[in-house]
Write a structure and sequence with these properties.
Strand content: 15-25%
Distance between the termini: 58 Å
Structural class: alpha/beta
Helix content: 25-40%
Mean pLDDT: 91
Number of strands: 21
Radius of gyration: 31 Å
Largest sheet: 6 strands, mixed
């Protein structure tokens, strides 16, 4: 029996090779792997000895030969295959242990060049892996060093490796090579275009198996991109608390995306994927107090994202209630000592928490049998496109508050309404099936007077009833996309109530 071993990841390969020799295998190898084995006192035949050709083109061509692939692909139960091997003087290869050039490690280097990346695209390795995986009835194929001991144990306990194990190893190979090719495709594609091509293959690596999904009866897993953007949640470091849950991760991501809209000290509180309190202030202590006071009921058991270091005073306020997660760019030592007094709170540190997501990012949603892919919703509106459509003109304070409110409305599930004043949310009405209910909920939820506040809507008003209710609540300015066939009704109602209304021309549905 013969085993072909050629690996970039040398973990455990010496022990594995010795184990195969002890079980009657002859070792074939190439390049650095062959040298490593020989240096360890292991006899290894160069592949060039069985092909009759030396490695050439700087190692680009060494295993692409019938003596290799014929020995792997021949079906042992077919006399025609075996007689052809005998005729050609080719011996079978019964085990293939290969892992590929480190393309991922290469492209993650900050100084990587396109030439470096191209040179680390493996050709012969995937070809041999796929050949062996295709012929897995007869060939044991292994690409993961963690499987070495299991294979040797199988040989000892059964005399060979069972078909079930061979099948699973082959499946693992196809998953491995598919991810490898997808990584290359993604890297090259990002160099020229944002738009997905006619065919799209996504690759992610498992970060952890979660305790459960949205509900306890659902299994769940957490995967990460190969090279996630700076400021992405998967880059966060957990400093305290138990393992994150599926809902923790999903809700924290929503809080993080909203937080990235702000450069000034800001606190974002999220519950069940919706913002429940947001405040920008002179410092993070004041911002947290504002976010808490905006809705002290809903914030309980929620998630808070902060874009400044958490200090001791802020930590003391946070500790007055139960929160699932606090995520921030840093925590002072005093803050950590205070917050760690509660064992159930999770503390996440994310250095680049304010870093804008890559503007090339795509938003992907899974639907039954397919995917919906769109460009990420970047920005809230184009300043040059703003139109004041009422007789009343908003003052500079109202314009600042409307900009603040629209940032929050962008992340409230549609239909979404946000009432704000002094860069603090007063009431949020998210996820309603009609817009008037969203306005009603935002007004009803407000714990402070809405007199002189502003209102932001993620989409246009289909009727003037929303403006009428805003007028009754004392709203002084409204910002909305406009675009309804009944816009004139809403404008007329705003003029009747003395409300200033601004159209942005940009909708922010979030479903």
């Amino acid at each position: 029996m013969r085993a072909l071993i050629s690996v970039s990841d040398k973990t455990g390969v010496i022990e594995f090779s010795k184990g195969l020799i002890d079980r009657g295998y002859e070792i074939l190898s190439t390049g650095g792997t062959a040298k490593l084995l020989r240096d360890a006192g292991i006899s290894a035949t160069d592949v060039s000895e069985i092909t009759g050709f030396a490695e050439c083109l700087d190692g680009r061509v060494k295993t692409l030969h019938p003596a290799v692939h014929g020995g792997i692909l021949a079906r042992r139960e077919l006399d025609s295959h075996m007689s052809k091997l005998a005729e050609l003087g080719i011996e079978t290869i019964d085990l293939v242990a290969i892992n590929l050039y480190p393309f991922k490690d290469t492209i993650l280097r900050e100084d990587v060049t396109m030439e470096d990346a191209i040179e680390n695209i493996d050709i012969g390795g995937p070809a041999m892996l796929r050949s062996a995986a295709k012929n897995h009835r007869d060939v044991i194929v292994v690409t993961d060093p963690t499987d070495y001991d299991m294979i040797l144990n199988e040989m000892d306990s059964r005399g060979n490796v069972s078909y079930d194990i061979k099948y699973r190893l082959a499946l693992k190979v196809f998953q491995y090579t598919a991810a490898y090719d997808a990584m290359i495709s993604d890297y090259l594609g990002k160099k020229i275009s944002l738009q997905p091509q006619d065919k799209i293959t996504l690759t992610y690596e498992k970060q952890q198996e979660l305790r459960y999904g949205e509900n306890p009866h659902q299994k769940a897993w957490y995967y990460r991109e190969i090279n996630p953007d700076r400021g992405s949640l998967v880059r966060a470091k957990q400093l305290h608390g138990k393992e994150l849950s599926f809902n923790n991760i999903n809700d924290t991501n929503g809080a993080l995306l909203l937080l990235k809209e702000f450069s000034e000290p800001t606190a974002v509180a999220v519950k069940h994927g919706n913002p429940c309190g947001v405040c920008s202030a002179n410092n993070i202590f004041e911002a947290y107090l504002g976010a808490h006071d905006a809705d002290p009921v809903s914030i309980f058991g929620g998630i808070v994202a902060l874009n400044r270091e958490v200090d001791g005073d802020t930590a003391k306020e946070i500790n007055k209630i139960f929160l699932e997660i606090v995520i921030a760019p840093a925590f002072s030592q005093e803050a950590l000592e205070i917050l760690r007094q509660k064992k159930n709170i999770r503390l996440l540190e994310l250095d680049d928490i304010g870093e804008e997501q890559n503007v090339r990012t795509l938003d992907i949603k899974r639907v039954s049998g397919g995917l919906l892919i769109q460009e990420a919703d970047i920005g809230i509106y184009d300043e040059s496109e703003l139109r004041v459509v009422t007789n009343a003109q908003p003052d500079s304070e109202a314009m600042e508050d409307m900009r603040f409110a629209m940032k929050v409305a962008k992340y409230a599930k549609s239909n979404g309404i946000v009432i704000a004043k002094n860069k603090k949310t007063l009431g949020i009405g998210p996820g309603q099936v009609n817009r008037i209910w969203a306005v009603e909920n935002a007004v009803k939820q407000s714990l402070e007077s809405t007199e002189g506040a502003v209102l932001a809507s993620d989409a246009f008003f289909p009727f003037d009833d929303c403006v009428e209710m805003a007028g009754k609540a004392g709203i002084k300015a409204i910002i909305q996309p406009g675009g309804s066939i009944r816009d004139e009704d809403s404008i007329k109602k705003a003029d009747e109530t003395g409300i200033a209304m601004v159209f942005t021309g940009q909708r922010h549905f979030r479903h």
